[in-house]
Design brief:
The protein is mostly beta strands. It has 2 helices and 11 strands. The strands form 2 sheets. Strands 1, 3, 4, 6, 9 and 11 form a 6-stranded antiparallel sheet that branches. A hairpin with a 7-residue loop joins strand 7 and strand 8. Helix 1 packs antiparallel against helix 2.
């Protein structure tokens, strides 16, 4: 008997939209004078590249959450997650990020660095760098996702952590950043036996045989009853074996 995988839902192994708690760690360099990551409802008006709303819900982490001149200055600020379990088959890490560096005396000179750990935060590897030029440096929420199996340096997928660092080096630009809705999820697939009743009338008969023969040689077809990728003699045998007497 053959079976096929059928999508039946999403398994969420980790999700944090910062609506209930803000338990991530913020670490600032000694020379940072303003713009540390904070958790809250965005208070700015967007005129300096800051978000006016979270990507999901009301709360997010963002750089110094006050209206007006509150961007990252001089040093850097880092937002680090706790340990997340990404060991489920086919797990995907996703997040929403905001980054703006295209204003000020020296626009497009700073970047957001995203790093990932596969050992609970002992060591880190680069995941992506946003900026200093290119897409995603003028604000706006960007949804990003990564298949964990495709990320290098993950020693133990059950011990994943992620961190986001933004800074403002000389010459300075206006740097604003935010993070929201971090998730690790995977698709749930159920093994379902293929149904030789191709027309769904409750019996396997000549009408189903006609449908199978009409699809003969097709690839990835509804009539591929044995799941080998093509409609052929194996599928004919499966249909005849289920014939309604």
């Amino acid at each position: 008997m053959y079976s096929v995988d059928v999508y039946s839902g999403i398994d969420v192994g980790f999700e944090d939209d910062f609506e209930i708690a803000c338990n991530w760690t913020v670490t600032n360099s000694a020379d940072l004078t303003s713009g540390a990551f904070e958790c809250g409802i965005p208070a700015g008006d967007g005129s300096r590249g800051d978000p006016t709303a979270a990507a999901s819900g009301e709360y997010c982490f963002l750089t110094e959450n006050i209206a007006g001149n509150s961007d990252v200055d001089t040093g850097s600020t880092t937002l680090t997650s706790g340990v997340m379990d990404g060991s489920a088959p086919g797990a995907v890490l996703s997040y929403h990020r905001w980054f703006s560096n295209d204003q000020g005396d020296a626009p497009n000179t700073d970047a957001m660095v995203v790093e990932i750990s596969g050992d609970g935060g002992t060591s880190w590897n680069s995941l992506e760098t946003v900026g200093p030029t290119g897409e995603g440096v003028s604000g706006g929420w960007y949804f990003v996702e990564w298949a964990i199996d495709d990320i290098g340096g993950i020693n133990d997928p059950s011990q994943i952590a992620i961190r986001f660092t933004v800074g403002d080096s000389d010459p300075q630009s206006i740097v604003e950043a935010a993070i929201d809705m971090v998730m690790i999820s995977s698709i749930i697939c159920d093994d379902v036996e293929p149904n030789p009743d191709l027309n769904g009338d409750g019996v396997v008969d000549g009408e189903d045989l006609a449908l199978l023969l009409a699809a003969w040689g097709d690839l990835d077809s509804f009539a591929d009853l044995n799941g080998d990728g093509i409609v052929d003699g194996g599928d004919l045998g499966a249909l005849l074996g289920a014939w309604t007497l």
